[in-house]
Amino acid sequence: MLKVQPLLCALGVLATAQKSIESERLYKNPSYTPKERAEDLLKLMTWEEKVGQLGGARRLFSRVDGKPSFNETALAITLETQNGQIGFGSQLNYASEVLPLANEFRTAQLNNSRLGIPFITVTDSVNGIYPAGGTLFPGTCAMGATWNIPLYREAVTAIRDENLALGVKWVLSPEVDLARDPRNGRNGEMYGEDSYHVGEFATHYINTMQKKDENGYVKVATTIKHFVFGQSSGGVNTASIYGGINHIFNELGAPYIRAFRDANPLSLMVSYATVDQVPMPSNKYMLRKVLRGIMGFKGLIMSDAVAIPHLYTQSKVAKSATDAGLKALRAGLEHELNPAGTAVFPTLINSVDDAEVAHMIDEAVRAILEIKFATGTFDLPLPSVSELNKTLRSDRHLEINRNVSRESIVLLQNDGTLPLRANTTRIALLGPYADVLNSGSYAANNASEHKYGGTIRRSLEQRLGANNVKYKAGVDVISTSTDTSGIPDAVAAAKKAGIAVVVVGSGWSSDTTAVAINRTDGEGFSHPDLSFPGMQQQLLDAVLDAGVPTILVLSGSQTFLLNDSSKRSRAILTTLIQGEFTGDAVAEILFGDRRRARSPVAYDYFPSDEQGGFTGTGRFDWFWPQLTRYAPLRFGFGLSYTKFEFSAPAIARRDNTTVTATVTVANTGGRIGKEVVQLYYRPAVTEIEFPVMKLVRFVKIELAPGESRQVSLSVPIHELGYFIDAEWYVEKGLYNFWIGSSSRTEDLLPYNITLA
Ligand SMILES: *[C@@H]1O[C@H](CO)[C@@H](O)[C@H](O)[C@H]1NC(C)=O
Ligand SMILES: *[C@@H]1O[C@H](CO)[C@@H](O)[C@H](O)[C@H]1NC(C)=O
Ligand SMILES: *[C@@H]1O[C@H](CO)[C@@H](O)[C@H](O)[C@H]1NC(C)=O
Ligand SMILES: *[C@@H]1O[C@H](CO)[C@@H](O)[C@H](O)[C@H]1NC(C)=O
Ligand SMILES: *[C@@H]1O[C@H](CO)[C@@H](O)[C@H](O)[C@H]1NC(C)=O
Ligand SMILES: *[C@@H]1O[C@H](CO)[C@@H](O)[C@H](O)[C@H]1NC(C)=O
Ligand SMILES: *[C@@H]1O[C@H](CO)[C@@H](O)[C@H](O)[C@H]1NC(C)=O
Ligand SMILES: *[C@@H]1O[C@H](CO)[C@@H](O)[C@H](O)[C@H]1NC(C)=O
Ligand SMILES: *[C@@H]1O[C@H](CO)[C@@H](O)[C@H](O)[C@H]1NC(C)=O
Ligand SMILES: *[C@@H]1O[C@H](CO)[C@@H](O)[C@H](O)[C@H]1NC(C)=O
Questions:
Q1: Is the CB of 531 under 6 A from ligand 8?
Q2: Whole-structure pTM value
Q3: CATH class of the structural domain 409-590
Q4: I need a labelling partner for 586 at 20 to 30 A (CA). Which of 232, 277, 285, 603 fits?
């Protein structure tokens, strides 16, 4: 791109290309370790060059007149003071348009870099690659809802290879926050509410992404995040949380501890949250003592976007932006993520005379250089558009995506109306989310752009013929809308068809219009009243009041209150954060080609939460009166079109080291189907309060009608412990176990065992 070169020269910052650096320098030699190479390079760097590595420009490209162009402001900042990494900017740009520009930028920058230190490309990657043109997978919560680890690994492999083809060597995932607050607009980016389930998915994500190539380079580095985040004030993503050290070690921190044990995430992002009154970006105790010291995290620690300036502008724990930068550095932050404008870390250049600061900057630079060396960023050739085109949306990736989409939809209620009869030829398809591909905040999808595959409307039209699907939105997708004028038409269509599929929800994606602004789902949004935004409940109620058999389809990742009125629906499905084949998968499920199943209200509460006081009308329950702990929909729950029966479990101890639970699962229904076998436990007596039960293993199996299979789940006894003041403790004595198809009492078979 013509603009790059003049700008580089005009800035004059990287102008003196000293080609005199001997090409045989150790750091240029791939046979040395990343650590050795980083150490060698560090010795040659000026302070300006070092500080430059501590940040980057997140939004290198804008989208102007339907095509990508360099964002000149971002470009200038990147070249001047934030030279560590780049991000792509607008998600609406196509990958094949962006790659040549990114390559050109890389070449120009390398031509002018004294030591030849390349940028590394870092992007978010939730539903797939960050810009448009890749395979659009369902969001993380939908992946978690598959409970299918082998399938998930295939999906992550596809996402990894599409990122690699685009030159992305570092992603800002996995997100291991626990979806414990139903109001949080970001729950769709999380795997779910349970720390074991989340840790399991995240560990497989990291190991798959970071798999080494044939030359020993890490394919794509990962960022485990957001350390540490849980139930925040008001359900707001950036708000404060409580969390004592036991709670952090046993719950919020458990997926990290698991991932550090079984995988090695090369970086970690610190949360926006203030934890126990200390904002995480300046939380020296949590980062240096707990994360580094006790949990043993070895990789790079980065801030979340604009979180360091927040210490000054929002939390008021710093006197100035520079003071905020110093506090963050002292707390252990090594990299500043900064999507827009000038960052704080470049001002550290004024403090390099202070030996303590200089030492910390060196540590931080080592950390990013090691990632660059480990991922082959110095050594590997730039990716080509032709290779990119071959990789993106390959037949295999699309097939994996179809399989994931089918297993990520959860059937929550069914009176036998589903599957629809084969002779169903007409349906009324109602609701504003029926014709929206609701792919969440981080998808490269403009949801009104029909290039991106199936909305539920398009998939049903393909199946039944456009004339046989009577589509009426009925009400607006905008949460602030009060317009009910479309409801009578929608009800009339329902009566005429004799059956209605009503698709309601919240969210929608990276569109920048008023619709996106007036949403309740997505990063930065909260969903305090748990109802369907806008007039959607009114639409649903009107159709149900008319007596038309109704199938309710939920769209988006929020927890919706299904009140008694909504539960009059004959069947209820939830699609969570959708991918490009979710619409097709819904059509398949409605007509019975497929099946299966989860629900987010924490099942693993503490025994003391059982009390809650008595009133004249009954007991208080949970934080949200509508979301009872004893709800029919609990964690791990999902219905099927077939029936499974579990035999009485046998739980055996082996060699005093392992507990094995064995059960025979039989498909006693008439269809092939998949079931998730789940093992829960608690030590009968503990030193500190232990949840009423805790998931400890799961596996998903497929059975043909009449088939049965013995399933064994084994857990090392050492894993049955818990932390007290950060020390691991394993009880002896009586343990309660439960094995079954969900965390509901009626779906579980209890068994006790005494462990010596
Ligand atoms: C980089 O340098 C090479 C060789 O000096 C030159 O051919 C090429 O045009 C330069 N590229 C850019 C983008 O500056
Ligand atoms: C361009 O980059 C600047 C600085 O990062 C940012 O503030 C601005 O929003 C970007 N503009 C566009 C159109 O993306
Ligand atoms: C890559 O794909 C894009 C979009 O389909 C197309 O415009 C471009 O010509 C292709 N380029 C190559 C080199 O195959
Ligand atoms: C997708 O699922 C089908 C049916 O279970 C299976 O035969 C196929 O191998 C799967 N494909 C991939 C790529 O996992
Ligand atoms: C559709 O099939 C069911 C049996 O599966 C039958 O009871 C019903 O009458 C059929 N409806 C029509 C319109 O043919
Ligand atoms: C999204 O796509 C639609 C249809 O192509 C287009 O009208 C709209 O401008 C796009 N929105 C953005 C933010 O690009
Ligand atoms: C979006 O919400 C704002 C604030 O409630 C309101 O002023 C605006 O009219 C809404 N936009 C639309 C299109 O409803
Ligand atoms: C269900 O919720 C809607 C909207 O909040 C409310 O209007 C309706 O009365 C509720 N119905 C029942 C039966 O609780
Ligand atoms: C298991 O533990 C018991 C009690 O500590 C001990 O007597 C027994 O020898 C142990 N068995 C094995 C196989 O280690
Ligand atoms: C298991 O132990 C608990 C006490 O922790 C007891 O209440 C329960 O009845 C026992 N269950 C079985 C199946 O033995």
A1: yes
A2: 0.93
A3: alpha beta
A4: 603
